[in-house]
């Protein structure tokens, strides 16, 4: 089988750090990503990954969950604490709870082992385009107390910057461009993640995490509102919880 997928154009030269203690998996992933035009570095455990994160400043980390020292979930949390480097997690686990753990740790995407190397390349491209796609001419979105700047990828509320991951920013931007409109999880998965098929709990987890950062009380959201039987809508002005018909 050919290991020369189409090149990336604007993504050529982006640096990818592959973190996996299985040398075969690391070799295959590295070979395909290199053939696709990326610059690839490797680490065999979480501690080495965190050292290389500081030294190399990769654009994206492909991170295995099952690592011998610091596991992938904890490594992902530390990557997220250090900045907004994109993370795509690899997991041999298939239960929904394990995937949710990765998303809650801050991962932008996940891929279940065994995986197609070509799908890995496509997922890496998708995440990178999502996290770097804003054009400098994009005008800031101002609604209610929110100001969302797609070019700078900065969101503030009442002048205070919101500490959002790349995917949380994408979700907030998409909804803020369409205030008052309700979207189901399938539509959000397509629009924000670029997936036509995927685990809808991905959306649920990111909505919960985003609420924790933008709501005065995330257990009674007044901005990112649940529309029962449909999905979610964004209300930039918010309404008191007692006046809403649905939590």
TrEMBL record:
PROSITE patterns: OMPR_PHOB, RESPONSE_REGULATORY. InterPro entries: CheY-like_superfamily, OmpR/PhoB-type_DNA-bd, Sig_transdc_resp-reg_C-effctor, Sig_transdc_resp-reg_receiver, WalR-like, WH-like_DNA-bd_sf. SMART domains: REC, Trans_reg_C. Residues 138-236 form the OmpR/PhoB-type domain. Residues 15-128 form the Response regulatory domain. The modification 4-aspartylphosphate is found at residue 64. Keywords: DNA-binding, Phosphoprotein, Transcription, Transcription regulation. It comes from the Bacteria. Residues 138-236 bind DNA. Gene3D superfamilies: 3.40.50.2300, 6.10.250.690, Winged helix-like DNA-binding domain superfamily/Winged helix DNA-binding domain. Coiled coil: none annotated. This is Response regulator transcription factor. It comes from Microbacterium aquimaris.
